[in-house]
Structure formats: structure tokens, C-alpha cells
Amino acid sequence: MQRMLTVDEAAAMLRHSKYTIRNWIKRGRLQATRVGQRYLIMEGAVQELVVPPAQTKIPREESKHLMEHLLAEGVRAGVTEDTYNHVMRDAEAREEAARFNTGAL
Predict the structure, then answer these.
(1) Less packed terminus of the chain by CB within 10 Å, N or C?
(2) What is the pTM for the complete model shown?
(3) Which helix (H) or strand (E) holds 4?
């Protein structure tokens, strides 16, 4: 049997205000049961809304390919050679840090 959460508990789990949780319930984004003047929310319904963070790091080869493509497009893409060089230095620094942390250096 799933645990039932209050609006405050759901808000804490989802890192949103209790007002946002109530709004989601009213709009049907979050299923809840009304008991008297309170809402109870099944923990599973809250878990469905928890989204893992998106992958923000792009591997160096993909970064290089993307930046070369954007440079080929030139001004239309708004990418300068300085921007390309900055992105490549950043990717190289991340790779070096990863090698250092794994003991490969």
C-alpha cells in the first residue's frame, strides 16, 4: 500500500510551494483525494512528477563537431572562432580533470 502525503509533504518532495501543488491538483496534473478540507496525495503520483536532471555535458567529439558545424554556418549562427576556441578549451579541461580524478594522469 502506498503512503499518502499531505500537500506540504508533496511540496517538500517536489521542491515547489504548497500553492503550486494545490494548483496542479486543481488542474489535474497531480492526482489527489480530498478528505474534508485537505488533500491527500499518493506517493506514487508525486514520484511520477520527479524528473531526473537532463544531461548537460556534451562529449568533446560531439562538442567539436557541433562547433565546426556552427562555424561553417558563420554569422547566421552567431558563433565566432573565439567562442569555438573557448568551448574546446573547456571540453579539454573537463577531460583532463576526469583523467586526473581517475588517476590516469
Answers:
(1) N
(2) 0.48
(3) strand 4-5
CA neighbor of 46 nearest in space, from 97, 77, 2, 80: 2
DSSP 7-45: HHHHHHHHTS-HHHHHHHHHHTSS--EEETTEEEEEHHH
Nearest Cα neighbor of 46 from 72, 79, 67, 15 is 15
Contact of 43 with 5, CB cutoff 8 Å: yes
Distance (Å) of CA 99 to CA 11, 87, 88, 90, 96 = 40, 19, 17, 14, 5
For residue range 15-65, list pLDDT tens digits in order. 899 999 999 999 998 999 999 999 999 998 888 887 655 555 666 667 667
